[in-house]
Amino acid sequence: MSDSFEPTITSLFGNGNGLHQQVLASFPLCDVTEEDLTQNPQFCKLLATLTQHVDRTGLTVSLKAELDKAEQELQNQRRFWLWSESLYRGLQEMTQDYCVRKHRSSVPPDQNKFYETMERCLLVAQCALKLDHSSTPNLDQPSVLGLTPQQVMELMPPEENVQRMKASLPRHVERHLREKCLSLLSYYQPEWEHESEGLKSNKLVHLSGLLNEEKRRSETLKETSRENTVMLQRQTQLYLS
């Protein structure tokens, strides 16, 4: 190695044991000991120089930046997919609840129009998505029944009904989510089921903390169960031996 690197290495890491410790800390995945670095000083200097160009995992600075960017894009797409999937499933639950209510009691005409429009929009959009070949490599694949997504989209409800449905959709979604949260609260704390709406609303603020506590308790019980299972197996082996 050229002597021109030595002043830089010395200024960054120092000499002797300090240099060895810094090199080992910079390459935790490298199977190298301090004794190896002591016996091979030139190799130690090479590793010290590499620390200016690669990170602790061995990736170059440019490659690490590209990897971070790709991971960020992947996380953004994942969050968008989770958001879309959660909303879609929530809308499906709303239509199912509507069908149950419709058979049990009378539903106001405006709600009938809202849910019928939403259900039809969901069905048409789902069918159009199934027919869309843009995400498949085989573009020559024949479509189902010879239909195209554009033809299916023509079955959407009238634009006026769609716009009216979209305008009232946030209010219905909020009500549906609130009912689900109240049901969840009643499951974990049945004593609150007959309380007033105001008290229930105040209790909903602490629902996330309640669920986190329940999750930790469940994980603790699982770990205890695994430990008891291992202990029982050992005791069984000792008894049989």
Keywords for this structure?
single chain; 241 residues; 10 helices
Could you explain the architecture of this structure?
This protein has 241 residues and is mainly alpha-helical. It has two domains: 54 residues, no CATH class; 135 residues, no CATH class. It is built from ten helices and no strands. Helix 5 packs across helix 6 and helix 6 packs across helix 8. It starts with a helix and ends with a helix. The N terminus is likely disordered.
Order of helices and strands: HHHHHHHHHH
User: Mind describing the biggest β-sheet?
Assistant: none
> What integer is the average pLDDT?
82
Percent in strands? under 5%
The span between the termini is 63 Å
Query: What class do helices, strands and sheet pairing give?
Result: mainly alpha
Low-confidence stretches: 1-5, 7-14
Number of helices: 10
Question: Based on CA inertia axes, which overall geometry fits?
Answer: extended
- From the alpha carbons, calculate the radius of gyration and give it in angstroms: 31 Å
Tally of individual domains? 2
Oligomerization category of the chains in this entry? single chain
Number of strands: 0
Relative helix content = over 70%
Short description:
The chain has 241 residues and is an all-alpha fold.
Write the layout of secondary structure elements.
Blueprint: H1 5-13, H2 17-26, H3 34-39, H4 41-50, H5 61-104, H6 109-131, H7 149-153, H8 159-188, H9 197-204, H10 207-240
